[in-house]
Write a structure and sequence with these properties.
Layout lengths: L10 E4 L2 E7 L16 E4 L3 E4 L5 H23 L3 H27 L6 E4 L4 E5 L5 E5 L4 E11 L2 E6 L1 E5 L16 E5 L5 H15 L17 H16 L1 H15 L2 H11 L9 H7 L12 H25 L1
Antiparallel strand pairs: 1-2, 2-8, 3-4, 4-5, 5-6, 6-7, 8-9, 8-10, 10-11
Helix pairs in contact: 1-2, 4-5
Amino acid sequence: MNNNSPPAGKVEKGFLWKQEYLSPLPIPTGQPASDILSLIWRKNDSYLDIGSLSLAGSWAIAHVCTVIFLSSTVFSLLHGQYWFAFLMFMGGALLMGFCWSLFIGLYRRPLAPPLRFHRQRREVRITTPDGEEWTVPWERVHALAPSATMIGQFGAAQMGGLILWFPYAHEIDQPYHKKKEGWVMMVSPGPGIAAMRQWECIRSFMEVGPEAVPEPLQNLRGKNLKELFLEEFHKTREKHGLFLALLRDIGVGCLLLNLMTYLWLHRRKFAVIPDLESPEGIAWSQPLPPEQWAKRSPELETAIAEREQDLTTLNAKQTSHTA
């Protein structure tokens, strides 16, 4: 890691904004791996493919806001507030028409090649839409979780995302600084913990193994949507009880978010996902014999050991306070 790189765990704060550095070095965040945006396209023992296109956030915002506007319009009509109902309907139609047009544009956008993280080589393969390819050492990947607080007439709302920064092929060994240009992937799982959980999908695959990472949604294609819903419903009922299962999976999942329709759209969009096609990329993607696997740097070994000790101490304190 370059000395100019902000260390993982560093937090910068300003007025209504915060930025957390997650890597390098890629130490544990303390959060479980959760593919919030369904960014995992492929997973095997050698590599993990991460897509740059996510429909989940756009769908959730557009659908939830549509439900709110329609519910407000119907509620106003039932209570005789016709003028307010008309304003809600027209305002909702204009705003949600814009939101749905953005979602449709996103849905129709061609899929770009994935980011491929090879855990045996401890490298990342970058492939641009115009076909340029290069590899970046895993411990040179910069992960940041910026967040900002937006204040409006209805209160404060926190927004945030996850940024992955990679040096260009001819600048791999050059010093890093905040204004340095690089190849960037930015997604919006949410601020703080949500961004950490999405990052943990990548970090855990590279540092722990494929078993520590959720399965790609592509691996569920053999099941129909009804089977997927019932399976998830039964898991929630066994873990949290019938009431919470009905509230989460029926109330929120089906009525508020309409996840059945989203899953159907997601399957159609990602029925065929791009792969690396160049001979160099295909050769690079092949598994290696265990004796050829790349090792962690001594700096990362030390950083992970210290972070795991800190997390153990923190968990012990939280357990003692709860007891």
